[in-house]
Amino acid sequence: MFQTALKHTFRSTTNYNRKGSRNFHIARPRRAFESYIPHGGRGGRSSVAGKCVTLFGCTGLIGRSLLTRLGREGAQVILPHRCDELFITYMKPMADLGQFLWIPDIDIRNEDQIRECVQHSNIVVNCITAWYETIHYNFEDVNTIFPAVLARICKEEGVSRLIHLTNSSATPHHPVVQLRSKSLGDELVSQQFPDATILKLSTVFGPKDRFITFFADRDKYFQISMDIFIDEVQKQPVFLRDVADAINNCMVMESTPGQTYQLVGPKRYLLSDLIDYFARASGVDERYVNNILPNFPWAVPTPRKLMLKLTRSSVDNVLTSDDIDDELPGLEDLAVDATPLEKHALYILRETRLVRRGFIEVDFKVPPPPVIYEPKPNPKLSRVLDSRW
Questions:
Q1: How far apart are CA 246 and CA 263, in angstroms?
Q2: Is the pTM of this model over 0.70?
Q3: Strand partners, 124
Q4: If 106 and its partner were Cys, which of 48, 78, 80, 173 is the partner (CB 3.0–4.6 Å)?
């Protein structure tokens, strides 16, 4: 049934230009009622969920986790990407045959390609973000202009739900350029698509992430730790699977359109305590953590030393505290139970731990969980409040 509906819904053609690159084009549906596939089946991988989702950023960390859930429930997903076919081969078995439609060579500056990707969908999810600038795209192109253009096109094409992912620390006057550009992009999305659901994420951790595995390299650990010990950076990391479950629930809950949610973890830590925990969990010798590291003056990062293995944007993301707004709804409002970091950190660092310890875990001591951060009371403020009373 699904293949028959897909045949009438999409009439795809592939041609080649003079340079030999492939151009993928999706023609408009013949009839309007054929653009959405009705719900059918008992539920599960081989059924039809009745959702036609366009997922931008499908090859990223959050996109891959969300894709497994959509394929498990039988959703039809349109997946624009810029990767080589070898990089997406392992993702094709996530769904039944024909459920995923891959659109290669997508250009976020081409509005015609964006329109062709979303015109058949009733749900659009934007997981694209820029961690660093390149010669082709900067922060403004990816974090500001593209979300605004996508929201406008979704409004014109009649998309019922738009889910946009952003950072919880993004503010208009933030010192980090990436977060300033994301804040402006969030405002433009709300203006172009008032019913859009905006999810503000804190630091995301999970397998192959950019947080826990960032400190798995001993050289990066030495170069950046001393600066973090001086500055009290606070993190409230959220688990990757919790984010994917929250996005999946946003697609079906009736109360999510036009709302802004804050997806953060249940516990807040100092980044210095997390680095010590990651070091011990990844098999770093206790001597490096307790004795050698604090006594090395060359461990203090300099601009030239950071540019050897780190980019400035990656350092800014690590050294930025997660700003939390208690007034915004969170994971519990999306029917998701938050998972603490120490529950999965040992498993995530297992590969690094085995390599460092010669694939032997017999005498490995499980480190204690990191200390939960508790803000210290300000004595001056306490005296002022006491004097008022």
A1: 8
A2: yes
A3: 54, 162
A4: 80
